[in-house]
Every structure is written in structure tokens, then in C-alpha cells.
Specification:
It contains eight helices and eight strands. The chain has a single domain, classed as 3-Layer(aba) Sandwich (Rossmann fold). The longest helix is centred in the first third of the chain and has 19 residues. The chain starts with 8 loop residues before the first strand and ends in a 7-residue tail after the last strand. By secondary structure, the chain is of the alpha/beta class. α1 packs antiparallel against α6, α2 runs antiparallel to α6 and α3 packs across α4.
């Protein structure tokens, strides 16, 4: 059984201490699922937010003939923008890395990794990010783990790296014991109270209509949709995060 419900609960006003924040999402919808509540709380607190979309999102319905890969990408990016608007995180144009969905590179010898790291590092600097939100390093999806590796490499090149909070998405459904934090990770888990912004989070998730309901990519019946069981995890009035147990520059 996952230990998430036992983690200490931090109040909603925790967001006000995070400063300018950048969320890095492997796919369109991860920003709403994993940390949509925190993004809405940051907006309420008047903290600037910006977003990075790592993959092109085109592989949720790979067998569609009506929608080409570029058309699928356009649909999902539009949903991403819509969700950011709902969460109040749309003041800054997001950085779209357009890396291949399901094949995001995770090492420097893979095509696209070094360029993506440079783009990420520059964007974090431009936004003067005090905090970055990224997928949990062992969230059980290869693109999520690759995204964590990309961000880690980008942060390594910054003289004063931002505070890093790692959110969970697929760990709710697929986590094996070895995917959860160990003593070697030196992280602490906590829950964040998002009760005041639950309706915004749910509307942001629903904005990713191609992923939550049939009727968008209609000619690929075997394509991906988030299951009701998966969505139920994100209907709770809290979100789960991991942070270094002794974070630098913690407010």
C-alpha cells in the first residue's frame, strides 16, 4: 500500500513562500494532474509561474489517420494552453521542447538531450525561477524519468539552482516498492492542501479532453484515455510532493 496518505500535510499558504515557479511537464495533462492545485495556489498568492512542455504529446492515439502526428500535437498543445489558463499559469508563453512522445531522451548521448538541457537552463534563468516542479525521479513512466534527468542536468549548470519539488503522477497506479523514496534519496514526502482550489484543478484536468473522454481522436479506439480509477487519485484535496530533506535556500 502506498504511504502517501501518511505524509504530513502542509497548508495551502505554503505556496506563497515558493517565489517564481516553473513547472516542467512531460506530457500535456501532467501539469494539471501532478501539480495543478499548487499552480492555482501560486496564482492566488501572486507568485509568477511559467511552464515547460517536454514531449509533443502525439502518441496517445498513434493509430489515428484523421489526425496526423502534427495535428495530434496541435490538439494537445491547445489543451495544455487551456489548462494553464484555468490555473492562472498562462501569463508567460510556455517553452515547448517538442521531444518525441514515449521517447524523451534521458542521457547526453541521445539525440535532443543536450539541446533540451540548454533550452531548459536558459528558460529557468529567464524566469528567475526560485522553485521548479518536476516529476518524481522514479515516477513509473519512461518520459517522466527522462524529464527528471533533463531537469537535473539543467540545474547542474546553474550557479544557484532553484528549489526542486517532485510531484507524482503514475506512481499512484504503477509504483513498485523500488520506485518509492529510499534513505539514499534523502527526500521527504509531504501532502499539500489544495482544498481551496480543487474546482480549478478539476477543470484543468477536464481541459485535456482528448485524454479524459472519447470523441476527439475518434478513429483510434485503442488510444489512451485516463481511467476513472486513475482520475480518482487526483480528486483528493491534496497533492503529493518530494523534496530534498535539507533543501538549499528553503524559505
Amino acid at each position: 500500500m502506498l504511504p502517501f496518505a501518511e505524509y504530513p500535510l502542509r497548508p495551502a499558504d505554503f505556496a506563497a513562500a515558493l517565489g517564481p515557479t516553473v513547472v516542467v511537464a512531460p506530457h500535456p495533462d501532467d501539469e494539471a494532474l501532478g501539480c495543478g492545485g499548487l499552480l492555482a495556489l501560486l496564482h492566488r498568492a501572486g507568485q509568477p509561474t511559467a511552464a515547460v512542455l517536454v514531449s509533443d504529446g502525439s502518441m496517445s492515439h498513434p493509430n489515428s489517420e484523421t489526425f496526423s502526428p502534427n495535428a495530434r500535437r496541435a490538439v494537445r498543445e491547445a489543451e495544455f494552453h487551456h489548462a494553464l489558463t484555468i490555473l492562472g499559469a498562462d501569463a508567460t508563453e510556455p517553452l515547448l521542447l517538442h521531444l518525441p512522445d514515449s521517447r524523451v531522451p534521458d542521457t547526453a548521448d541521445e539525440p535532443g538531450f543536450v539541446t533540451a538541457v540548454e533550452q531548459l537552463r536558459a528558460f529557468l534563468g529567464q524566469q528567475r525561477a526560485a522553485t521548479v516542479l518536476i516529476p518524481w525521479r522514479r515516477d513509473p513512466h519512461p518520459d517522466h524519468r527522462a524529464t527528471a534527468a533533463l531537469v537535473q542536468a539543467a540545474l547542474a549548470g546553474l550557479p544557484q539552482p532553484p528549489r526542486r519539488l517532485e510531484y507524482v503522477v503514475w506512481a499512484w497506479e504503477r509504483a513498485a516498492p523500488e520506485d518509492l523514496p529510499t534513505a539514499a534519496d534523502a527526500v521527504l514526502g509531504f501532502r499539500l492542501d489544495i482544498g481551496p482550489v480543487m474546482s480549478q484543478k478539476q477543470r484543468a484536468i477536464a481541459a485535456h479532453r482528448s485524454q479524459v473522454a472519447p470523441g476527439v481522436f475518434t478513429d483510434d479506439p485503442g488510444g489512451f484515455l485516463l481511467s476513472p480509477e486513475m482520475l480518482a487519485h487526483f480528486a483528493a484535496p491534496y497533492e503529493v510532493y518530494f523534496e530534498a530533506s535539507q533543501p538549499k535556500n528553503q524559505p
